[in-house]
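Record pair follows.
FIRST:
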Amino acid sequence: MLVLTRYLLQKLFGPGIVGFTGNQSFMYLDLPSNMVGSFLMGWFAVVFKRDIAKVSEFLALGLTTGYLGSLTNFSGWNQNMLDLSVEGNWAFVLLGFLVGFSFADYSFTIGIRSAKGFRWLLTRLNTSPEHHICNNSKRNWKVNTYKRHLAVMVVLVLMLGLLWGVSAILLKKEFDSGSSGSQLWLACMVGPLGVWIRWWLARLNGCGLGRAGLLKWIPLGTLIANVSAACVMAALEIVKKVVNTKTCDNVAGGIQFGLLGCLSAVSTFIAEYHAMRESKHTWRAEAYALITIVTSFVLGSLIYSVPFWIREYR
């Protein structure tokens, strides 16, 4: 579902319908999904996170790290800027990073403010979130026992299996016909793997480097996920240029949009940036943002842009 949501937002705001975003514009294709994901992250990862966790901590984790993290796409954003750079549109590259970061940042802030406003409204109406949580508990909606966790897991696994089955059938149909639509269904199949890898890497956040635990303030897991996804995205893009076949384009495109799109996350990156900005060491927020963006772009340039310029791919 998360891959389909991102795909639909691309199509809705892309050149075919609204025309708000484009491949050769600093208003890149993933900008709307990055804004929506960051906005909702302000709601569910900041304001209402505790309320959701009272029902189920797994629900809170799945909604924020899973769905909203995968709805946004850092690697796609970085690759769009690399595509602009190889064409010499450096002004668009700078604007793309400034606009992309600013819009996601502002969307996150608006999400927090609107969620707080909604919470205040519920309180005024004497229907606070805590009141609803209490009622839900009385109705046995709270997932707080082994059997209930097991039941939820079984349902979710069955849903995942069903979605995988449908995606596999549609993938085979589209792949046999040579349609580019096979990219979407392949992306739906490999997307969950990207979510799982990002969740696993999140364990590194707060650990620091080496035995001494240097630079613990850097969310190392998120940084590795975003930078590695951006690098692999760039590598697959140059592979598509070298091989230059429709099959390669479809397979690589599906992996890029699904696995790498779900592995990297703008909304999590922005949430961590905000947490640092509200700490005692505000400079860390800007340093973290620069480290993530500059490292991804420089490594991406070495992997994608340099071979592109040398071999003059078009």
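SECOND:
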Amino acid sequence: MAPLRVLCLHGYRQNGASFREKTGALRKLLKKKVDFVYMDAPHSIEQGQESGDGDRRGWWFSDPGARTFDARQLCEDSSGLDESVAAVREAARRHAPLDGVLGFSQGAALAVVLCALRESGAEPDLSFRFAILVAGFRSRCARHLTFYSAPLETASMHVFGLEDGVIPADESRDLLAVFREPEVMTHPGGHFVPAASAHRQNYQDFLERFQ
């Protein structure tokens, strides 16, 4: 049986390579069952905004002027989302066929947008059948509200930490109402992709529906 091909969308301040490293335990947990495909967000975070080394990237900015992102920031408009959708569209064509999408934090928020665009017919190249949303949340940008207006049919698995200090569990729970029949897996930790042996069966049970 061929492995499922899943596009992986990293969080804000990460990139494809760093997210691949951070999900090493998950790749090992689902070895031979999933082919994980990683990509970079198209927007660089300017030096000086963030401490640390490495190429830090984001999918959109909640403050277009400062080119910064805060999941809790209320905003009328954002910048960068269209470019990110175009980048994912190109990745989907290059790595087709994709079975699913895995998003973490801002990448999970983007994955919800992609599900909405795919179901509306606006992005026919996005053929994935499921979404795994880790530490997901609804964008607080007013122009993004349309993405949450109708229940989404895409099969979804929502994963979040009960002690997440970056994206509180309540925000991830609030996202459940956007999907028709969401599946949920919680863990007692914080802001990361859980991949202990205790989580293997949850992931496998969800993924077996698409193999």
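COMMENT: The mean pLDDT is 94.
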